[in-house]
Amino acid sequence: MMKTKANIGVVGLGRMGQRHALNILHHVPRAKLFAVCTPAPHEIEWAKTNLVPEGVHTFECFDKMIDMPGLDAVVIASPTELHITQTLAAIQLGIHVLCEKPITRDMAKLRDFMETAKQHPQTKVMVGFVRRFDENYMDAIQKVKSGAVGEPIIVRSQGAEKLDKTGFFIEYARQSGGIFIDTVVHDIDLTLSILGENIKPKALWATGIIAHHHEMKDFKDADNAVGVVEFWGGRIAHYYHSRTTSHGYDNCTDIIGMTGKISINSVPHYNRVQVSNASGIVQDCTPSWIDRYREAFVTELNEFTDAILDNKELPMRISAAYTGLKIATALQKSLETGQKIEFDENGDSIISDGR
After folding, report:
1. CATH code for residues 6-128
2. Strand ranges inside the chain, DSSP E
3. Where is the Gfo/Idh/MocA-like oxidoreductase N-terminal domain (predicted)?
4. For residue range 22-53, what is the model confidence (pLDDT) as tens digits?
5. What is the pLDDT of residue 19?
6. What is the gyration radius of the CA atoms in the chain, in angstroms?
């Protein structure tokens, strides 16, 4: 008999893992939050308070959790350096995986992983690029496919985060892999979803500045950066990311076609409330990316669960994550070196991009 619910475990109970766990518990009708896993004592305490009363099993050891009978899938929200080993361990047991990005920062490891995944074709693996599941982006992409602006030729996308003066960001950034790998990779993935997952880079270049977080000089990163990618076939993407905005999270995208333009979130309104007074017209801005994509995280989990239960194709392929990481890694290298990086028609770099 076909299962009506998928038993899903969550690995890692930091802010992202907690959000996934609560979403599965309360907002994904076809899923059951079966188990959670974390070695962190404070996260275990959170689970005991918020999840154990709901019948959720709690583990400190990942291997013990994935050996639990009845587990169908895991959502991996652990530290990045654990992503690929935990994903491999799960798929080798036939457990489906939704892994937060990046599944790895190492292109060679990702190539090896893709070969291993081919040996387990019945086990589904998806990387968590949540913007694909935002209703605004989904609507925009559907409009592109319907021909509303003709053939898309340029994508211009921005993600600007509020300045964090607490010191937390610097310690996070040291381990993040860099601004293009950590954040712009979302805009790159959007580009692939708009222009086509099979599109290949032809050349790219990046530059950046350090406006506030001067400690970033130690690890050759920037808190404001711009990257430009030219694709084979004559299309271009332009990316801007900032870690230093004063007003909130400002994420917007323009899709420029042969006969028009589609804009998404041009003004980052938090809601539809405006205050008009002697200061002018004031409207609150979206505070953070987690607020901007609250509903998209739920949609992502629902689509992942449907793909498991109905044996449907996943909404994105691992090959797209590979292409996205290749571009992000090359942009990060260009930021560090100032070099333009070129690719042949197969999408392989002509000069070394650090792979």
Report:
1. 3.40.50.720
2. 6-11, 31-37, 57-59, 73-76, 96-100, 125-128, 152-162, 201-209, 224-231, 235-245, 250-257, 260-264, 275-277, 280-282, 341-342
3. 7-129
4. 999 999 999 999 999 999 999 999 999 999 99
5. 97
6. 21
